[in-house]
Design brief:
Blueprint: E1 12-13, H1 17-32, H2 39-53, H3 77-118, H4 121-134, H5 148-162, H6 173-184, H7 189-207, H8 216-232, H9 241-251, H10 253-258, H11 270-288, H12 295-310, H13 315-330, E2 344-345, H14 346-355, H15 357-361, H16 374-377, H17 396-404, E3 410-412, H18 414-423, H19 440-450, H20 455-462, E4 466-470, H21 475-480, E5 487-492, E6 496-501
Parallel strand pairs: 3-4
Antiparallel strand pairs: 1-2, 4-6, 5-6
Helix pairs in contact: 1-3, 1-4, 1-14, 2-3, 2-18, 3-4, 3-5, 3-13, 4-11, 4-13, 5-6, 5-7, 6-8, 7-8, 7-12, 11-13, 12-13, 19-20
């Protein structure tokens, strides 16, 4: 009787451990980043609305400072619905876990792509390090997380096609990806930019009759795919209005002038500093490498560098699009490096598995048992009813107090507004992180009040008679209120205070 085949573990090369070390470290770090109260919660509430009402809201809904029927475009409705479904199935813990897996999958696929372009796992590890450090501020639970893999898949499929490695039929997958992408986040425009860059670059090579240029019929197919992808962006509830939404967002005064991630990156902080280092490295490597970028590579570098230089939120796309090009250029430096033996071994396989044990142990269901220093736990709520890994300034207890003592027109810190929308929507918010919903004049007044400048007159003007205050982010107001006889302290904890006017105190 023939014996059954034995299961054998793959024997990995020691070279593969280089990028796996970086990947495991970045995934570990990402899993431990506390989730702030800003964007997540209002997205969850909209997801709940879509799930329960089977329709997408089109108005303000939650802010008492604006009419309830004030129009607002919820472009990321599907991303919000997906977040809520995860929350419904497994709470914040499952939502964070899926974010962790998406981070691991995205940067793992990026490492593989850089290995494909450079032929070296060590070069992949080097450029993956740059990409990871640049993206340290990115992996929070937001609707944008649904776009990381579509972006990379666009990039990989387009490159494989233009290098003659896959059949043109594979590009039809881009249409399906775009239909998903356009409904989960406004960054779907990046997909159009990728297709446009590849079509333009390859058309230039063909017209200039450069070596290994695509034949005209393949360039035409690339153009046809671009047209299909553009048409597929209309497969959303508001069809062509999605482009008006993007145009308004890109020119919205509060978004462009008040939100740091929409501003140009300064060379401060590890992520931004790494971004500038990557630019210098790219210039130096391209200057001495034998690598000659194709027109498409030039368009990708120039386009995504410009986007990242214009706004910090685009550094992620720059890292994903440009670091593989840097990896290929590094592989062609005129440097002779003695090749070291890289035998395959089950020991390497075991080492690779052990690298990811810490990542597994800091998943939401296990993290509170992981031996982390006390200073870390000062930043995170432990045993919170909403779930693990929430930042310690999430106003859980303060909002519970408001649930028990409702009423009044509440002036609130903007990030707290997102959590209020989720936990006690009937209270209403002064502002929240739907930045473009509110006029610039209201944001200017919000900043003055938070700084303690003419706060009584401004609060009276708006009719606010209660305050939910972040003592760290609204320090100016926090310093003024204790000596102001108009206001009475209702509630206080480490980060949060609730104040009320004497006549409005519950």
């Amino acid at each position: 009787m023939p014996s059954s085949p034995k299961l054998r573990l793959p024997a990995l090369s020691i070279e593969l451990l280089w990028p796996l070390i970086i990947l495991a470290a970045f995934a570990f770090y990402t899993a431990l980043v506390p989730q702030p109260p800003n964007d997540l919660w209002w997205h969850l509430k909209i997801g709940e609305y879509v799930y329960a009402q089977k329709t997408i809201p089109t108005t303000n809904l939650f802010a008492w400072t604006l009419p309830t029927d004030q129009p607002f475009y919820y472009a990321a409705w599907l991303g919000e619905w997906l977040l809520y479904v995860l929350y419904r199935l497994g709470g914040i813990d499952l939502t964070l876990f899926v974010r962790n897996l998406l981070t691991l999958a995205t940067f793992g696929l990026l490492a593989w792509e850089m290995r494909q372009r450079s032929g070296s796992w060590r070069i992949s590890a080097l450029t993956l390090t740059l990409a990871s450090l640049m993206c340290m501020t990115v992996p929070l639970v937001r609707t944008q997380m649904w776009c990381w893999l579509p972006f990379l898949l666009f990039l990989i499929l387009l490159r494989r096609y233009t290098r003659g490695e896959i059949h043109g039929a594979w590009l039809l997958a881009l249409v399906g990806l775009m239909i998903f992408w356009v409904n989960v986040h406004g960054t779907f425009i990046m997909g159009l930019l990728l297709v446009g860059a590849y079509f333009t670059g390859e058309a230039m090579r063909t017209l200039l009759r450069q070596p290994q240029a695509l034949p005209g019929r393949k360039v035409a197919w690339l153009g046809a795919i671009g047209l299909l992808v553009a048409i597929s962006t209309l497969v959303n509830p508001r069809t062509s209005e999605i482009f008006g939404y993007l145009s308004n967002l890109m020119t919205d005064q509060p978004v462009q002038q008040l939100v740091d991630e929409w501003k140009s990156p300064t060379p401060l902080g590890l992520a931004n500093t790494t971004f500038y280092i990557s630019i210098l490295a790219l210039i130096a490597v391209l200057a001495i490498s034998r690598f000659r970028p194709r027109p498409t590579d030039t368009l990708l570098v120039a386009g995504f560098l410009w986007l990242a230089w214009d706004g910090q939120r685009s550094i992620l796309w720059y890292a994903l699009a440009v670091m593989p090009i840097l990896a290929e250029a590094v592989s062609q430096l005129p440097i002779t490096v003695k090749a070291l033996p890289a035998p395959r071994s089950l020991v390497n396989t075991l080492a690779a598995a052990l690298l990811f044990v810490p990542f597994i142990l800091v998943q939401p269901w296990l993290v509170e048992s992981f031996p982390l220093p006390p200073a870390y736990w000062e930043q995170v709520h432990q045993g919170a009813p909403e779930g693990r890994m929430l930042s310690s300034d999430t106003p859980i207890a303060a909002v519970q107090y408001l649930q028990e003592h409702p009423g009044g027109n509440l002036f609130n810190e903007m990030g707290f507004g997102s959590y209020l929308i989720w936990a006690v929507p009937e209270q209403g918010v002064f502002v929240d992180t739907r930045i473009e919903l509110y006029p610039y004049s209201l944001w200017a007044d919000y900043i003055r009040i938070s700084q303690g400048v003419r706060y009584n007159a401004l609060l009276e003007q708006y009719g606010a008679n209660r305050i939910l205050l972040h003592t760290g982010l609204q320090q100016g107001l926090a310093e003024q209120l204790p000596s102001d006889p108009i206001w009475t302290l209702e509630y206080a904890d480490t980060y949060t205070q609730i104040w009320c006017k004497a006549a409005a105190c519950p």
